[in-house]
């Protein structure tokens, strides 16, 4: 079967940062953008180092071995560390928001991936993954709907919406690969993590460029209180 094997698209993770930001308006956008992709950054690093690896065929990418970056336990541990630092630094809301961002990555990946997410950072045990990526039309519709939902609760700008839609459209060739689409990835070991890194950075820049122009009016704004405009 042709398949991208379970690479939740960067724009979906970046959109999750918008949803977290809407709940924690005083937490900066950049810490949240990094939090939602922290697990992916680990995967990119571990893949470059050969610690984690994928199985690539001419028309499919299978993320066969990513227990260190992408296990449920890794997500919970990273979230606990962020939450703990927040407590110690008396910035509980920052810690909680970052923890939520980290967990959002694992949650979205469990929905989208083939069953390849382990409970603990080891090869042992059951593998989670609802395999949304195996149904490309549904995958496209669910991911774009999720992105637009996050944009809506963030009350993003029109420019951000257009960017989000374009980023989702760009994913279509990867969602519906041709029979030899992934041959270059087979020939160049570092190409897959590099392409993912570019996607991650591009989605960050999109949200950073269009996101901060949003003016947030908290419902609790008192008359005369300064309005958050980050
Ligand atoms: Zn991931």
Concise structural overview:
The protein is mostly helical and 230 residues long. Helix content is 60%, strand content 7%.
Protein described:
Helices cover 60% and strands 7% of the residues. With 230 residues, the protein is mainly α. It has one domain. The strands form two sheets. Strands 1-2 form a two-stranded antiparallel ribbon. A two-stranded antiparallel sheet has the order 3-4. The radius of gyration is 18 Å and the shape is globular. The mean pLDDT is 89. Bound molecules: zinc ion. The site of zinc ion has 6 residues, from helix 2 and helix 5.
Average pLDDT value? 89
Bound molecules: zinc ion
Report the major sheet.
2 strands, antiparallel
Secondary structure: helix percent: 55-70%
Number of strands: 4
Helix-strand pattern, N to C?
Answer: HHEEHHHEEHHHHH
Based on Cα principal axes, name the global outline.
globular
Structural class from helices and strands?
mainly alpha
Order of the strands making up the biggest sheet? 1-2
Percent of sequence in beta strands: 5-15%
For the record, give the distance between the C-alpha atoms at the N and C termini, rounded to a whole number.
45 Å
Q: Any low-confidence stretches, pLDDT <50, length ≥5? A: none
Computed CA radius of gyration, to the nearest angstrom: 18 Å
Instruction: List the total number of helices.
Output: 10
Give the tally of structural domains. Answer: 1
């Amino acid at each position: 079967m042709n398949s991208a094997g379970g690479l939740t698209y960067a724009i979906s993770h970046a959109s999750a940062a918008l949803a977290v930001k809407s709940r924690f308006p005083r937490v900066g956008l950049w810490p949240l953008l990094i939090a939602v992709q922290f697990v992916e950054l680990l995967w990119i690093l571990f893949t470059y180092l050969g610690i984690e690896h994928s199985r690539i065929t001419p028309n499919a990418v299978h993320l066969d071995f990513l227990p260190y970056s992408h296990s449920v336990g890794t997500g919970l541990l990273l979230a606990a560390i962020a939450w703990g630092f927040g407590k110690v630094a008396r910035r509980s809301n920052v810690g909680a928001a970052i923890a939520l961002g980290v967990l959002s990555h694992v949650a979205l990946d469990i929905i989208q991936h083939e069953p390849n997410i382990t409970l603990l950072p080891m090869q042992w045990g059951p593998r989670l993954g609802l395999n949304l990526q195996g149904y490309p039309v549904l995958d496209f519709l669910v991911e774009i709907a999720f992105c637009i939902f996050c944009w809506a609760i963030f009350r993003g700008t029109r420019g951000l919406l257009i960017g989000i839609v374009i980023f989702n459209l760009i994913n279509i060739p990867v969602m519906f690969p041709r029979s030899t689409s992934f041959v270059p990835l087979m020939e160049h070991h570092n190409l897959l993590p590099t392409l993912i890194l570019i996607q991650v950075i591009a989605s960050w820049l999109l949200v950073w460029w269009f996101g901060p122009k949003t003016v947030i009016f908290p419902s609790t704004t008192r008359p005369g209180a300064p309005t958050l405009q980050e």
